[in-house]
Structures are given as C-alpha cells and as structure tokens.
Amino acid sequence: MKKIITITLEGGRQVTVPTQTLVGELLERPFEESTGLPYLGALVNNELVTFGYALDIDSTVRFVTMKQPSGLQIYVRSLSFLLAKAVKDAFPAASFSVEHAIGPALYCEFSIDGKPGMDTAQAATLEKALRLLVDQDLPIQRSRMSYTAAIEQFTRNGQDDKVALLRHRNTPKVVTYVCDGFCDLAYGPMTRSTGGLKFFHIQPYSDGFVLLMPSADSAPEIPEFKPIRSLTATFKESNHWGRILGVNTVGRLNDIIAAGEIGDFIKVAEALHEKKIAQIADQIASTKSARWILIAGPSSSGKTTFAKRLAIQLRVCGLRPVTLGGDDYFVDREKTPKTETGEYDFEHLNAMDIEALNKDLTDLDAFREIKVPTYDFHLGKRIYKGKTMHLEPGQVVILEGIHSLDPNLTPSVPADKKFHIFISAMTQLNLDHNNRIPTTDNRFIRRLVRDHRYRGHSAERTLAMWPNVGRGERRWIFPFQDNADAVFNSALDYELAVLATEARSLLADIKPDTSLYAEARRIMEFLSQFLPVSRDLAPPTSILREFIGGSSFEY
Q: What's the start-to-end Cα distance of the chain, in Å?
C-alpha cells in the first residue's frame, strides 16, 4: 500500500495523495483561469519540474505559466527544441543555430548549401511546419538512455554538437527529451506536449530569421520586433571571432581544454579584445570634435577595466585621457529611489547625483579644478579622499557608468562633443546549436563572483537583486544602446570555464527552503557543462580580472 502525502497548492489549499502521484495529475485545468495561459510546469518545494515528476514527500506545488520567469524559461526551451525539429522536417539540408536574444525574440542563423539568410517564402514554410507540430499536440517525453546509446544516436543523427558535449561526461545515463522521433539533450524541464507552444511568429532577419515570442510582461501578446542596428553588427563580429577561435559551443571549448590547448586559446581571445579596443581608440582619435568619451552598459559588463584599457590605447593615438567613474556619483544610500516593492533601485537614473556630476563636468570644461569623489559601497556614501582633477587643452574625459548613453545624465555636455560607447558581455558561445547561453547569465555569474569577493554579498543576496537589475537595465540602459558610436563585446569565450567552480560553490549555499532555489539549481547545472580552467591563466589586464581579482589595474 502506497504512503499518503500532503500537497499544499496555491492559496494554501491542501490535498492528500498517494506517493508517486505525478504533478500533472494535480491540475484541475490545463490553463490559468485569469489569463488563459497554459500551465507549463511546476515548482515543487522550489524546484522547477515537469508534469511527469513523481511526488514522494509532503510538498508545496505551484504551477507556472510564461508570466513567471521559470515558466518562461520552460516555454523558450521547449519552443527552441520544437523549432530545431521543425527546421529538420522542413529543410533537412539546412544549417541552423539559435544565436542570441534581441529583446524577447531569438535570432537564428540559417543557411542552405552555404548560402546564408532566409526569404519570406522560407519563413512561411518554417512557420507552417512549426504550427503543424503545435496543432498536433504531440507529447514531449523525458527519457533516459545509456551513455553509449546516446553517443550512438546523436552520432547517427549528425548532431555532432551534442556528441562534443557528452564527450567530457562520464555519467552512465543521459537525460533527453524526445518528440516524434526528434531527440535532444535535457538542459532543464520542458512542457509535456507541443500544444501550449502556440505563441510565436517567424520573420526573416539578417543571415537567418527571428523567432518572436511573448515576454513575461506581454504574454500572450508578441511584442513588435525592433532590430538593434549596433548589436546586430556586434554579434556578427562576435561570430566571426568564434570562427577565428574555432569555438562556438561548450563542447568544442571543452575539447580545447582537455587537449591542453587553452593557454593559446586565451591568448588569441585576449588579443581580439585588445585589437577591438585599439580600433575604437582610432575611431575616437579620428573624430576631432570628441572630447567626452561616454561608456555605458548593463551591470557586470566590465566597463571599468574597458575604460582603463581604452585610456592606454588613446595614449597610443596621441591623446591624453583622464577618467571619471560614474559609480562615484551615486547619491547617498538613503536618497536612492526605491522599487515598487520598497527595495533600493540602484539602476534608476535618479540614483545618480546628476547635479553634482554636471557641475564637475562644467568646471572641467572651463579648465577649473574639481574634487574627485569616491563612492564607498559599504557606507553607502560619496566621500572625498583629497584627489583633484583639472583638464588641460586637448585632453579628453572618459566617463563610464550604466547611464552614460542617456542624454539626461549629461545635459551640460554639448552633443557634438560626445562619443558614445556601449559595452556588454554578449557571448557567442552556445551549449549546442539550438540551446544558447543567455548573455544575462554570463553577466550574472560575473557579478555573483565579484560581489562576493569585493562587496561581501552572499549568492542569495545577489540572485535576489538580479531581477530588479534586469528591470532597471530594460528601462534605463537598453533603450539608448543605438545611440552608440561604437560597441564593445566584453565576453570572453573561456571565462565561464574560469568562473564556474567558484560560482557553483557560492550557489550551493542557496537551499531548497528559498524561492531562489530553482534559479540557483538551473545556473549550477548549466555551469556543470564546463571543464574547469585555472584563473591563473587569465592575464592581469583581462576584463575578467575585474571580477576574479588579480588585475594589474587599480580600481
């Protein structure tokens, strides 16, 4: 006789069921009544699971739709899986990869016989094939097979990217998802069938197409696609760097690590960074009116190290730059705006002392001396340590900070004297061809390690703050990224292999009794795909040193 367990549902309602009851059997209806959105999975004791998860202890169960971040993850993961099948069905000879996000859309590269791009007719064909799979409401089944069988199957199907990732595992069983004969590695829960994946549109774009989907805020509506000119060019450049390095998936990176070739790989990756910084310096030097170099980007982009390296290259060009830190102009902690939930909103424009900053900029422009502030993050106050600054004719000023591309930050500076640079860690590295690594994950892992090392923050605190950071970036930073005169991609294709060990150790402190557990588990499992690389191999001038320590620059 099966043991009886107690399940606590949304709203505190409790039911008793036998052990081994599947989560999906608790659903009274397949959709959320208030929104009409399909349920995609569930949080069981704060762990994200499929409807096929068997309950064996007393549990709390919360069903999720794409309105919740965890539900949206299931939706995006499942739709990407189904898209890969649709491409294989409709265009068997095509090369295809999911590359990166543009807002809530996913940009995918597509080519046939080496010819990149997708026309309107091909987009319509692919959307029809994907829609057919959704309308059939096919089961997406979680399965386990032996390691040997998985290698044989993925090799037989020509999925070399999956084989490369498995090559460096030694688990006896491999978890996969299967739909109508199409098989993929499991990177997290998927929905139980294709029928709920009906909110999408395919549109030709650049060297492929975009898969448009709802965001958590807009669901079920699909926002209008807004291409970002500067980022499209930067991602193309990043993909070109990937070809130079010979790496575009984690499996291929692991091959290089296992072969003992990572040292040379790091040298080339860092050289590509240095070459790009030198090109931006040349561009500034040739822009004779440029006096104020404004560097902006989202959290943990490496703005500070980039500014220091750019200053060196500007000196090579014959300029004499001085640097101001935007973070040093934060208002005192008690004056910081708050979010709707009462937390400090450090991403808000008014978290900056705009008046004090512009007074200093005006004084510098008039060749008057200023007192340079330093923001003490532990005290939450701007302090002065006796450092002063003044400009001489012909000098340029580098100002870095998350809002530097927003004209409302520097109204005292004439527009024709500004040179704007946008920086972010836009990794071109994928887990495999149809499972990307979100750039926001790359930046979060950097911040997790840095904030623990330099600000004494726990993993739980950093993870709890991250959604507010993202909301602030979407409101205050990303709308201005097309103002950039130059874009720098600070991602390094080896960095997650360096960060993984420390980041996983920090995330292990987040236990199942917190609502953050599911996200901590997701990131830990994602980082487990990387073979480790010693932090000692990162050069002292690397942007990565801003996060792991050991930089030759002073901060």
A: 65
CATH class name, domain 235-548: alpha beta
- pLDDT tens series, the chain, 555 aa: 679 999 999 989 999 999 999 999 999 999 999 999 999 999 999 999 999 999 999 999 999 999 999 999 999 999 999 999 999 999 999 999 998 888 889 999 999 998 999 999 999 999 999 999 999 999 999 999 999 999 999 999 899 999 999 999 888 999 999 999 999 999 999 999 999 999 999 999 999 999 999 999 899 999 999 887 777 777 777 777 777 778 889 999 999 999 999 999 999 999 999 999 999 999 999 998 899 999 999 999 999 999 999 999 999 999 999 999 888 999 999 999 988 888 888 889 999 999 999 999 999 999 999 999 999 988 899 999 999 999 998 899 999 988 999 999 999 999 999 999 999 998 888 999 889 999 899 999 999 999 999 989 999 999 999 988 888 888 888 889 888 999 999 999 999 999 999 999 999 999 999 999 999 999 999 999 999 999 999 999 999 999 999 999 988
Do 473 and 299 touch, CB atoms closer than 8 A?
yes
Asked whether 498 and 544 are in contact (CB, 8 A), the reply is yes
**Which residues have a Cβ under 8 Å from the Cβ of 100 and sit 6 or more positions away?**
106, 107, 235, 426, 428, 436, 439
Please give the CATH architecture assigned to the domain spanning 71-212. 2-Layer Sandwich (3.30)
Q: Phi first, then psi: give them for residue 43, nearest 5 degrees.
A: -100, 115
**Cβ contact 533:305 at 8 Å:** no
Q: Is the Cα dihedral 64, 70, 76, 77 positive or negative?
A: negative
How far apart CA 146 and CA 152 sit, in angstroms, is 10
Find where tokens 């070109």 sit. Answer: 240
- Distance CA(513)–CA(505), nearest Å, equals 18
3-state secondary structure of 351: helix
Number of neighbouring beta carbons within 10 Å of residue 438? 14
Nearest to 493 by CA among 419, 430, 447: 430
Three-state secondary structure readout of 52-121? CCEECCCEEEEEECCCCHHHHHHHHHHHHHHHHHHHHHHCCCEEEEEEEEECCEEEEEEEECCEECCCHH
Edge-to-edge strand ranges of the sheet holding 173-179: 141-146, 173-179, 182-185
The answer to whether the CB of 402 falls within 8 A of the CB of 479 is no
The dihedral region occupied by 63, where left means phi > 0, alpha psi between -120 and 50, and beta the remainder, is: beta
Residue-range domain boundaries for the chain: 4-65, 71-212, 235-548
Q: Superfamily assignment of 4-65 in CATH?
A: Beta-grasp domain (3.10.20.30)
